[in-house]
Amino acid sequence: MSNNSSTERGWLTPGRQSPVYGEALDRLLSRWLRGVSGLPESMVRPRWQPQQPDIPPADVNWCACGVVDIQCDDNPAFVNQTEENTALWRHETIECLASFYGPAGQQYATRFRDGITVSQNNAELNTQGLSLAGYSHIIPFPELINTQWVRRYDFTVRLRRKVVREYNIRSLIDAPFTLSGE
């Protein structure tokens, strides 16, 4: 078994805490969406849940949101080489789909769209290591739920973040050979 450093053979895993993914990322995005759109806490829900709650009635405004794509740059940088470790830096683009439902769904979708462009709201997002990279137009997408047409408006947001992972790749300090040349 490897000691998780480059001094021995074997796989290396990062030694530093990773950014949030999965459910923790969903919660972070949900708080952001609630804060900017003004929807109540219980009315912004993760798109995919192990135990799917009942869908609110057609006359209730709510939003389902979730990560639909994570892209990264193809060539990470290895920086900050020390005697003990090296940091891997790469950038990710996280694409999130928010579907706004209800009689005022379009209003909440446009409020969210406009709110994410406010610098103070982006500064708050920056405290979580994320930044607004872009967004789509709002797409009306009525949905038939329980034999009733429900207003739905889809909106995609792209966020960027820098991912830093430290690996215990040791610096070459001494070599057991000498080079000679002309």
Low-confidence stretches: none
Biggest sheet, in brief?
7 strands, mixed
- Report, as a whole number of angstroms, the end-to-end distance: 43 Å
- CATH topology value: STM4215-like
- Assigned CATH architecture: 2-Layer Sandwich
Quantity of strands, as a count: 9
The CATH class designation is Alpha Beta
Mean of residue pLDDT values: 89
What percent strand?
A: 25-35%
Helix run count? 3
Task: Give the proportion of residues in helices.
Answer: 10-25%
Radius of gyration: 23 Å
Integer tally of domains:
1
Walk me through the structure.
- The chain has about 180 residues and is α+β, with helices and mostly antiparallel strands.
- The protein has a single domain, classed as STM4215-like, CATH 3.30.2000.
- The chain is about 20% helix and about 35% strand.
- It is built from three helices and nine strands; from the N terminus they run αββββααβββββ.
- Strands 1, 2, 3, 4, 5, 6 and 9 form a seven-stranded mixed β-sheet that branches. A two-stranded antiparallel ribbon has the order 7-8.
- β7 and β8 form a beta hairpin.
- The longest helix has 16 residues.
- The two termini are about 45 Å apart.
